[in-house]
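Work Package 3 (structural annotation) set out to generate three-dimensional models for the target panel prioritized at the project kickoff. During this period the team completed the workflow that converts sequence records into C-alpha cells, so that structures can be stored uniformly alongside our sequence database. As a representative example, we reproduce one entry of 194 residues exactly as it appears in the project archive.
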Amino acid sequence: MKELIQADLLSTADYERQREQFRSQIIALKQRRRLSIGPLITLVFENRETLRFQTQEMIRVEQILDSHKVQEELDVYNALMPGSGELSATLLIELTEQDRMKEWLDVFMGLDHGETVAIRAGTEQVFGLFEGGHSHGTKISAVHFVRFRPTASMTAAFADLHVPVALTVHHHKYHAEVPVPGSMREEWLSDFNQ
C-alpha cells in the first residue's frame, strides 16, 4: 500500500468540520476488519484509511501543527502499513476483570514470540510476525502490531468461499479459533490489490 504523505491529511480546521462523517465511515470500515479470536484477543486489520484516520486523530488530540511533528506521526503510522502481499493488524488483549488481570497477563507473556497467532486457509497456515518492543521480561503490552505474509495459494483461497479460512491463537492456556467471514476476506483481497 502506498504510504501516507502530508498531502493525504486534512487541515486541522477541515478535519474538525468533517470529523463526524469521517469517523462514522471508519467505524463501519473497522467493523468489517475486526475479528475476536476467543474472549480476550481481537485483531483489527489495518489499511491506508484506518491508518489515515488514526494519524488525523493523533494530530487532533495532540494539537500538532508543526510539519516536522506531523511527519513524525506519519512515520509512526506508515510503519504499520501493510507491505506488498501482506496483511497488517493491531492485536488487542482485551482484559477487563481487574482481579484476573495479572493471571491473564502472565498467560499471555511470550505471545509476541514464536508461532502463536496464525491465518489458516485450507491446509496451509501462516504465522503472524510481531513488531518488537511490546513486551519486556515480566511485562506484556495489551496492544501489539502483527503482520501476516500469506502464500499465493492462500490468497487465492481467500477468494473461494468453499475453502475454510480461520484465525487461530495457540499460546499456553489460551487456545481459540474463529472462521474468517466473507466480508473480512473481501477486505483482505482489496488490500492485496492496492
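The chain has a mean pLDDT of 92.
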